[in-house]
Structures are given as C-alpha cells and as structure tokens.
Design a protein that fits this description.
The protein is an alpha/beta fold and 717 residues long. It has 21 helices and 32 strands.
C-alpha cells in the first residue's frame, strides 16, 4: 500500500469570519502603537470636543460682510456657547505665521455649532460669551433673513432691530410661570359685523383666517382687537398685535387686561424703558407669556406657538422703521403669517391700497359692517368748499366760515369740540403780503415762520432771524400768514369763545384724554385725545394743506387723518357733527361724507394698476450723490422688464433745531439724486437681490461713495 492510500486525519472546519476577526485584531494592535492625537488647542488652551466650531453672525451691518464667520470654541466656553447666545469675537484679524493676530472686538450671535469649518486657515477663538440667554432663536433668525432679503439689507441690521439690547439685571430676573389658557370670551361688539363672530369662532377652533377689518367709527375698536387676541389665547396659541403709537397700544392693553386680567400678556413700547422692555421681551422669548401688544419693534417679538398676527392702522407712517433696511410692520407680519401659518388681521378705520390689494387678490377676506351699522355709528359730515368760503363774510374775515362757527357754538353747550389743524406752531409758513410768493430765508432758502405773536420771523430750517426780509419778486417788506398753526388757531378761538377752556395737543404735549365738559381741543393729526363721552363736534381745518402734498398717497393720507378725528365724534343720532374745510367734489372728501374708505381704496388701487405704481408693481429707490447713483446703475444687473425712472434731483429735506437726519437723506448743503426702479409683479425679490449684489460689488471695489436703497418706498411723489 502506498503512502497515499494511508489513513487520513479528520477534515478541518472552515471559519469564514476568522479572516475578518484577524484583520480587526491586527488593526487594533497597529493603532495602539501609533502616537495618540493631541487634543485641539488654541495657544495651549484646549478647544471644545465634538463641536469645536461656532458659526457667528458678527454685528457689522455691511452688505459685503453679510455672511457668517467661523470661530473656535474654547473648552471652557463649551457649555455656554450655544446657538442663539450673544458672544464677543475678534474681527478683522490677519494670519501671521499660521496664527491670527490683531483685529477689534465686536458683538455677535452664535447661529450654529459645527464639527468642522469650511475655512481652511486657523480659526480665532470666541473672546467671550456675553450671556447664556438664547435670544436669537432659529425661527427669529429665519424671519430676519427673509426681511433682509426682501429689503436688500444686511442680516445684522435686521437682527439689531429684532433683538433688543441686553440688560444684565433683567436676564437675572426669573420670568413668571405660564398661565393656563383662558376661556373663550363672548363676541361682544364684534356682532355688529356680519362676519365678525365667524372670524372669532375660527380663531377659537385653531384655524388661520385672514381678514382685512374695516372698523366702525367710535370707541370700540380697542376692545374688538383685544377680543381677537383673547380668543386666540383661548385656542392654546400665541398672539401678536402691532399698533402705531404708545397711546393706541395702551388702549388695547387696558382692554385686554379687562378681559383676561393681569399676567397673560405684555406691552412692548418704548415708554417702559430699556430694562423693563427687555424684561418683558424675555418673558415672551422664554415662553412665559404668549400674547404681545406693542408698537413697531414688537413685529419681531418671538411669540411661542404663534396663532394670530394683527396690525392696526397700517397707513400710519409710524409703522415704517427709520433704520436700515427700513422694513414696514405690515410686510413683516405678512411674512410671519405665511411662514408660521398664522391667522392674520389688518384693521383700521380706513383702508390702504395695500389692504385693498390683499382683498382684491383673494389672499384675505373683507370684514366690515353693513351700511345700516355704519350710518348708526358715524357722525354727520358737512363740507365747506372754496366757493362757499368765498361767498361767506365770516370766512373772508377769519379762518372759519359761518357754518363752522354755528356748529361750534351749538356743540359747546353739549360737550367738547375737537379742532384738527394740519400744522403745529404759530404761523409755520409765511408769504409776501403783496404778491403771495412764499417767504424764504436768504441764507438757506428755508421757509420763514412766526413763532409768537408780534415776534420776528425765523427760518424753519436754519433758525436764523429774518428781521430785514424783503421779497425778491416784488420788493415788498410785509408778510402774511400762508398757513396758520395750532397755537395761532388756539389763540383765535380762545378770543372768539372767551368763557370756554382751550386745550392743545401736539408734538410737545400730547393729551391722552379729555373730560366730558365743554372745551375747545386744538390738536394736530395723530395727537387727538379721546373724549370720555365722545366729542360733540369736530372741525377739520385747512383740508387743502393735506390734499396738496406732492405725494402719491396724499388723498389716502388725508382721508385717514380726517377719519381718525371724525371717529372720536358722537354718532349723528346723538348730535355729532363734523365740518371739513375741503372741496366737496374731491374723492377723499366724498369718501368721508359717505364713510366709504374701502371704496376709496379700491379706486386708488385701480388707478395704481393702470399706472403700474406700487403696490401693484414693486419699486426701489436709489438715492445718493449723482456719481454714486450713476455708478450703481452701471454695475447692477437688473431683471428683465425693469423700468428706470430718473435720476432726478432729490428734494432738500426740511431741517432745523430738534430734527434728526433720516436714513437716506442728504447731509445739509449736499445735492443728491434719486433713481426709481420699477419691476413687474413677481420679480421684486429678484430686484432686491440684484441691488444687493451691486452694492456688494461696489463695496468690494472700494473708494465709492455709498448709495441708499429703499425697497417699496412710501413717499414717492
């Protein structure tokens, strides 16, 4: 037998996993012999593990720096450096021999923590975590980004508007405990509107109804707005209402407190002071309070579970932010309603063309009362035109026609009388008594004004006296009043009704309310106090001064100011009468007589559509020195269909003591130009992006004078 035929041993078992296990063991042994990686450090200090990179929004509102910057997170700051907190970083440092040197300290916000950075060079570390309060939440950051893109602005500028300045003592205070949801309130005076109860019922169900509310004249609108907020809270959601000024916000605040009691909402206005306002804002940010009543800055309030955004009187210029990029509260709330899927309520005694467009497009539904309810709530409107005043002996001798004297005399037996005067001061505008040419300063060409009876005329811009003025047209030396102000009106009426107290309300002293006793209340538009039982009558003087403004919105604004004064007067059934000195055939005057502001807004919208004016078309205004405007026009790549209107010389703004220069206005003594860019509907965002890119390109080149860009300007002539 050969050896091959010999007995064989037992067969060996196969182990498929053996090779993988052996490879794993060898790899483990190899790694154990390698030197261990040193922890990441910055100048010897260890960095945070896991997410050592912080992406920071640096507080520098420059368009060419409108981006996030990465910083290293030291291990000692790992726990505190969370997204949303305020930090301090060194910005503008240079890399020298692999290390970052120099730079200046700036505040900022952490927006994200990351494991790696896109930047391949060495990262500078965070200098300091200023606060552990996470104030810039992801939803608020997203809203700020949307607003910056819409208005061709820098994100840092918008965040500066959205997040109030830090007050350390307010952060140390604990916020109140959240309160349980209130019960659904009764519809109250909303029953006067055909669809009012249905709107509140939809809010109570948790729905998201959108409405443009035309409020009835009278004192009930603060309670009605407060009811909408309270009903939203009862559904388990938050609510935000933005008012044009502190007096209006205080009225809604008082109404909401009466409905819900204390502690369920906060009032965000400048009157509270920086520290208390920040304390209230923190209560909202922390989720302790879910209802906010406030003025313009409250449009960014970080309300949790937002269910309703509301704005009152969106035509008031106070809703327009004066700081870059100058967003409008209405547009910010529209963005929030779309992004956060909330209910929307735009209310007012009149309607803007933007509100009419929301209804016309079907985005929102009209919420208004029937004609019978309007007639029952509105006062009687009487007009006095130029022809009537020319035939009136009293009107030729004084400012007021006979009908105004008669109405005032009779109404003073029943209560106070409101007199609305378009201009403050004594005689804010003067003219040559001979040729009626407006009187202007010989130094700066500003308008001359008379501050007191028998005083010396002064320039309204530079303040210089003009004792030796003479008319350059005819050589005359005598002056006459071109426009009479509130103080002069109060003086004249005080002499005419010597036994009646005269009270004034204007920029220097704004009255909140007046009693029911007979009195003459002289007020400028927007400063009219509320009478306890309503005014017995109102006189709306110098209507031509409002209607003759060189502004696209002159008629809309005149009607808005008249309606707000007339709404404070008692209904016609109780003897309430309003006398307006304006040509009866003019559209705003007719709309006031019929109390039909919605019809006026629809006709204005139709004309805007025919002329391709905002809001039907989006528009941007570019202002600055002529060379800078021309440079931007050559740099920008405009979307197809853009119309270039201009450039034209920019009107010199009024100046004078106490007036601050607004964003986008030329410095004193400089002549700027304005270029208007108009695009078809649907391309507004492309126009904003193109203008922002052009601004970045010009800033990168350096050496160029800046220009100011405003999207959707409200004051084009």
């Amino acid at each position: 037998m050969s050896s091959e035929d010999g007995e064989k041993g037992p067969p060996r078992e196969e182990n498929p996993a053996g090779g993988e296990q052996l490879a794993l063991i060898r790899e483990t042994v190899r790694k154990s012999k390698e030197p261990k990686a040193k922890p990441r450090t910055w100048r010897g200090a260890p960095l945070a593990e896991g997410l050592p990179v912080a992406r920071v929004l640096v507080d520098k509102g420059l368009l060419h720096l409108d981006q996030f910057f990465d910083y290293a997170v030291p291990a000692a700051m790992d726990e505190d450096a969370q997204p949303g907190v305020r930090v301090r970083v060194r910005f503008g440092a240079r890399v020298v021999k692999g290390r970052r040197e120099g730079g200046s300290l700036h505040d900022g916000f952490i927006v994200e923590r990351r494991a790696e950075s896109d930047f391949r060079g060495p990262l500078a570390p965070l200098a300091q975590v200023l606060s552990t309060e996470q104030v810039l939440t992801p939803p608020l950051l997203k809203l700020c980004r949307q607003v910056a893109d819409r208005y061709a602005g820098a994100l840092a500028d918008v965040v500066q508007l959205a997040v109030p300045p830090r007050m350390a003592r307010a952060e140390r205070d604990a916020s109140p405990d959240p309160r349980p949801d209130p019960a659904v309130p009764d519809a109250g005076s909303w029953q006067r509107y055909a669809t009012g109860p249905a709107y509140l019922h939809a809010l109570a169900r948790g729905d998201t109804p959108r409405a443009v509310w035309l409020a009835l004249p009278g004192p009930h609108w603060p309670q009605e707005l407060a009811l909408a907020v309270a009903t939203t809270l009862a559904s388990g959601r938050g609510a935000l209402a933005v008012l044009p000024d502190g007096r209006a916000a205080a009225r809604v605040d008082a109404a909401l407190t009466e409905i819900l009691g204390e502690g369920r909402h906060v009032l965000l206005t400048a009157d509270a002071g920086p520290e208390e306002r920040y304390r209230r804002w923190l209560a909202v940010s922390r989720g302790a309070v879910r209802a906010v009543i406030g003025t313009r800055a409250a449009m960014f309030a970080p309300v949790a579970d937002l269910g309703l955004v509301a704005i009152w009187d969106d035509g008031d210029s106070s809703h327009l932010e004066l700081h870059a990029p100058q967003p409008h509260a209405r547009d910010v709330l529209l963005l929030r309603a779309a992004e956060e899927r909330t209910a929307f309520l735009l209310g007012g005694l009149t309607s803007t063309v933007e509100a009419a467009q929301l209804v016309e497009s079907g985005w929102a539904l009209p919420l208004a009362a029937g004609r019978d309810a309007v007639r029952a709530a509105a006062p009687l409107i009487r007009t006095v035109g130029d022809g009537d005043q020319a035939r009136d002996e009293a009107a030729r001798a004084a400012r007021l026609p006979s009908i105004a004297w008669q109405v005032t005399r009779e109404a003073l037996t029943r209560g106070p009388v409101l007199v609305q005067v378009p201009r403050r001061g004594y005689v804010p505008r003067m003219a040559c008594d001979n040729c009626r040419e407006p009187a202007r300063c010989t130094t700066c060409a500003g308008p001359l004004e008379l501050r007191d009876q028998g005083g010396t005329p002064h320039c309204g811009w530079c303040g210089r006296p003009a004792a030796d003025w003479h008319c350059p047209e005819c050589g005359g030396f005598r002056l006459r009043a071109q426009i009479v102000g509130a103080r002069r009106t109060a003086e004249e009426l005080g002499r005419a009704f010597p036994k009646v107290p005269v009270r004034t309300s204007g920029r220097d002293t704004v009255l909140g309310s007046v009693g029911a006793a007979p009195a003459l209340v002289i007020a400028t538009p927007g400063a009219e106090p509320v009478a306890d039982t309503g005014y017995a009558a109102a006189l709306l003087l110098d209507g031509w001064a409002l209607l003759n403004r060189p502004d696209l919105r002159a008629g809309e604004e005149a009607l808005r100011r008249w309606a707000h004064a007339a709404a404070l007067v008692r209904p016609a059934g109780e003897g309430g009468t309003v006398v307006v000195l304006g040509e009866p055939t003019l559209r705003p005057v007719q709309a006031l007589v019929r109390w039909d502001p919605a019809g006026h807004a629809l006709r204005e919208l139709a004309e805007r559509a025919e002329l391709r004016f905002p809001p039907v078309s989006r528009m941007a205004s570019v202002t600055g020195p002529p060379a800078a405007v021309a440079d931007l026009a050559e740099t920008v790549r405009l979307p197809p269909g853009t119309d270039l209107l201009g450039p034209v010389p920019l009107p010199v703004p009024a100046s004078g003591p106490g007036r601050t220069r607004r964003h986008g206005e030329p410095p004193p003594g400089e002549q700027w130009e304005r270029l208007l860019l108009r695009v078809p509907p649907g391309t507004g965002s492309a126009l904003a992006a193109a203008l922002k890119s052009a601004q970045v390109a010009r800033a990168t080149r350096g050496g160029n004078e800046p220009v100011h860009i405003r999207m959707d300007p409200t004051d084009i002539g």
